[in-house]
């Protein structure tokens, strides 16, 4: 895949000790949903509410992450698994710094990159222009961008059925857009790369290429988090897995041990 101007391969240990890249310490994340207070929406009812001191809006809360702790180390690829709504995407967004934590702390070495979000793609611009924008946003020089653009486009495979790289991204299927986002983000070495379901998009051939790229990123001593419902992808890519259920950490350990327990849970055994 894309060969970036990479620094020399960083070591995964320092003085014999593993290097922590992400520390999640008793983290709670609570979503607040603002909605209109129940009751009539008529002006008279509104006036009555005002006079009686009742608020016009109500805040509902969802306690999505309930006291999760773990440490990730350099060189690890960690799968995040759990049933729908268990909190996988939420913890990933919190680690990326995109969601505030209600309680607890998250410490990271370097700036974690959540795949797709950091690339800041624009629908009205062509794939090529978006590659340039994404790469510049990740800190590459214009010269590096020029060098890497053809390789990123080729890796994404968006030109397999026509010259899509010259067309606006609004003409892409969601799978094509996801592949381009993955290709841009994966062109750079990241200290901490967070991938949410990205490998599940695209065809089998692209999935294979992207899995190989995740392995390469890990070998380059970054830390990779992968959220996926595809247990196959998790098994192939991650040697460690964290299983969340109802916002709580159920199990954290080698994928070979965590996945069978998760499968038993899902299959109701
Ligand atoms: N923007 C939001 N506002 C309010 N609640 C939210 C929001 N996003 C997620 N939630 C709630 O937080 C909880 C965790 O959701 P999250 O998306 O992190 O789960 P997930 O494990 O990634 O789910 P899935 O596997 O379905 O993608 C769920 O109860 C969900 O309804």
UniProtKB/TrEMBL annotation:
InterPro entries found in the cross-reference section: AAA+_ATPase (IPR003593), ABC_transporter-like_ATP-bd (IPR003439), ABC_transporter-like_CS (IPR017871), ABC_transpr_TagH-like (IPR015860), Bact_Polysacc_Export_ATP-bd (IPR050683), P-loop_NTPase (IPR027417)
Annotated Pfam families: ABC_tran
Domain ABC transporter: 48-268
UniProt KW keywords: ATP-binding, Nucleotide-binding, Transport
Coiled coil (UniProt feature): none
GO molecular function, one term: ATP binding
Family: Belongs to the ABC transporter superfamily.
Matches recorded under PANTHER family: TEICHOIC ACIDS EXPORT ATP-BINDING PROTEIN TAGH
Record's protein name: ABC transporter ATP-binding protein
């Amino acid at each position: 895949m894309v060969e970036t101007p990479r620094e020399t391969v960083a070591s995964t240990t320092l003085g014999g000790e593993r290097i922590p890249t992400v520390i999640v310490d008793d983290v709670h994340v609570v979503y607040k949903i603002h909605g209109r207070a129940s009751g009539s929406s008529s002006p008279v009812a509104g006036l009555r509410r005002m006079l009686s001191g009742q608020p016009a809006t109500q805040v509902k809360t969802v306690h999505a992450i309930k006291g999760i702790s773990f440490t990730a180390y350099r060189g690890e690829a960690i799968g995040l698994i759990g049933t729908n709504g268990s909190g996988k995407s939420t913890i990933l967004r919190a680690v990326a710094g995109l969601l505030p934590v209600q309680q607890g702390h998250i410490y990271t070495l370097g700036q974690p990159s959540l795949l797709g979000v950091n690339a800041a793609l624009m629908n009205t611009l062509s794939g090529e222009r978006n590659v340039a924008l994404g790469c510049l946003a990740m800190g590459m020089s214009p010269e590096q961008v020029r060098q890497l653009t053809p390789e990123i486009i080729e890796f994404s495979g968006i030109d397999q059925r026509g010259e899509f790289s010259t067309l606006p991204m609004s003409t892409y299927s969601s799978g094509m857009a996801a592949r381009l986002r993955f290709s841009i983000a994966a062109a750079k070495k990241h200290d901490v790369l967070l991938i949410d379901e990205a490998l599940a998009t695209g065809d089998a051939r692209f999935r294979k290429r992207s899995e190989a790229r995740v392995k390469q990123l890990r070998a380059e001593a970054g830390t990779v988090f992968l959220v996926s419902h595809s247990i196959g992808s998790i098994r192939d890519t991650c040697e460690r897995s964290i299983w969340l259920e109802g916002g709580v950490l159920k199990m954290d350990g080698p994928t070979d041990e965590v996945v069978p327990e998760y499968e038993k849970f899902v299959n109701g055994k």
